[in-house]
Design a protein that fits this description.
It is a single chain. This protein is of the alpha/beta class. It has one domain. About 15% of the residues lie in helices and about 30% in strands. The chain contains six helices and 23 strands. The strands form six sheets. Strands 1, 2, 3, 7, 8, 12, 13, 14, 15, 16, 17, 18 and 19 form a 13-stranded mixed sheet that branches. It is globular.
Length: about 400
């Protein structure tokens, strides 16, 4: 399948940098303020890569439904497209096929001459065994282990109903008030494809060593990486009804050809084939980097950072559920919990709560999925239709989104 690739659409504001990188000879990230537990390489953020709109109802793609809402604060009606079946139409179970594509990068420039490769295949087993794909009591874990709340809702409690299912399904069901019903949107157990390997030129990336975590960290140009991602999808001829997930390890992207303008941990997007006579193939996809604990700083009140292991993957999978074709516009929002996004007009559920999360112990590993913002927050619905009347899964926002210019 030949894809029409649209340019990478960055949806973040200027990076909030804690420090700059020193030369590749030492490759160390300098220490930052004592209350910052991270390596100081930059602010964790996410973006999108390509979108598809106005495609035929007979297009070959993932199962989806279309609907709309009218924002009561501005009177504008917004259309949206989401994965699965319309939860208002009944209780249907939808299962989406998934392939994981591990990617290995060998860097021409590394602070450690004995360490030049970061290989996503080393994290495949941990990813497959994680709550993204395996069932666990997500609601119970969220209630017991939620991160410290932001100042705007410091008095909140979390009382998510027990729900033994996959992470994304649990949050999606909670968003629509469908916990305890037969409504599900699940990911199939993934097929792992052969590892794709690339050599990173010296002018496109480098490996540095974290000053606090001591982790080997790959920093890579976002445009160069995006080209490799689309090259991989084209070469592997992924079925358009399948969600491909590109899996990296400790590799983060910088913007503007500037390693100090870091760090994108994941993105999702959609592309369409050139031909099809009304039955074009519309391919959705996502990339996420599995990361070691301690690279990114903890939020105030938290003893550990929740930006670790599957945090990026949970972010992108949930955003894919709610905006698979990257075409869901909303009344622009702004939140102090994620100033790196500025004023955003996209229905991207992970962006407002980056770094907030909870813990799930599963298969002997402690995972740190992200909180997610519910549909009702973006739609300015009062009350929220979500479980417990929450506006995020961890109840981090007390009311609907604030507007911005």
């Amino acid at each position: 399948m030949i894809l029409t690739i649209k340019g990478l659409r960055i949806r973040t504001a200027a990076s909030l940098l804690a420090s700059t990188l020193i030369g590749a000879t030492l490759g160390l990230v300098p220490a930052v303020a004592a209350d910052n537990q991270g390596d100081g390489i930059g602010t964790a953020k996410f973006t999108t890569s390509g979108s598809v709109t106005n495609f035929s109802a007979s297009a070959k793609t993932i199962p989806y439904f279309r609907s709309q809402f009218t924002d009561p604060t501005n009177g504008v009606t917004y259309a949206y497209t989401m994965v699965g079946t319309d939860p208002s139409k009944g209780n249907v179970t939808t299962t989406i096929p998934v392939v994981i594509i591990p990617v290995s990068f060998t860097f021409a420039t590394s602070a450690d001459p004995n360490f030049t490769t970061l290989d996503g295949s080393t994290k495949v087993n941990l990813t497959v065994n994680s709550p993204v794909f395996q069932d666990s009591n997500v609601g119970k874990a969220a209630s017991a282990t939620a991160s410290a709340p932001p100042a705007l809702n410091a008095g909140r409690t979390v009382k998510e109903p027990s729900d033994v299912t996959q992470l994304g399904d649990a949050i999606y069901r909670a968003q629509w008030g469908k916990v305890g019903t037969a409504y599900h949107v699940r990911l199939a157990q993934p097929t792992v494809l052969p590892t794709q390997s690339f050599a990173v030129p010296a002018n496109q990336g480098q490996i540095v060593v974290g000053s606090r975590s001591h982790a080997h960290i790959g920093l890579m140009d976002i445009t160069w990486f995006s080209d490799r991602l689309h090259q991989t999808l084209n070469n592997l001829h992924i079925d358009s009804g399948t969600l491909p997930i590109i899996l990296l390890y400790n590799t983060f992207l910088y913007e503007g050809d500037n390693p100090a303008n870091c760090c994108v941990l994941g993105f999702h997007g959609a592309s369409t084939s050139l031909r099809g006579n009304g039955q074009q193939q519309v391919q959705t996809y996502a990339f996420a980097s599995y990361s070691d604990q301690g690279i990114f700083s903890a939020n105030p009140g938290d003893t550990v950072s929740f930006i670790a292991d599957i945090h990026a993957l949970s972010h992108e999978v949930q955003e894919w559920y709610d905006d698979p074709f990257v075409n869901n516009a909303v009344n622009p929002w702004l939140t102090p919990t994620a100033p790196q996004y500025g004023c955003s007009g996209l229905l991207e559920t992970g962006d407002p709560v980056v770094g907030y999360g909870f813990e799930i112990m599963l298969n002997g590993t402690l995972y740190h999925p992200e909180d997610e913002t519910h549909f009702s927050w973006f739609a300015r619905e009062i009350p929220s239709r979500a479980a417990e009347g929450y506006y995020t899964y961890l109840n981090n926002f007390p009311t609907v989104a604030s507007g911005c210019n």
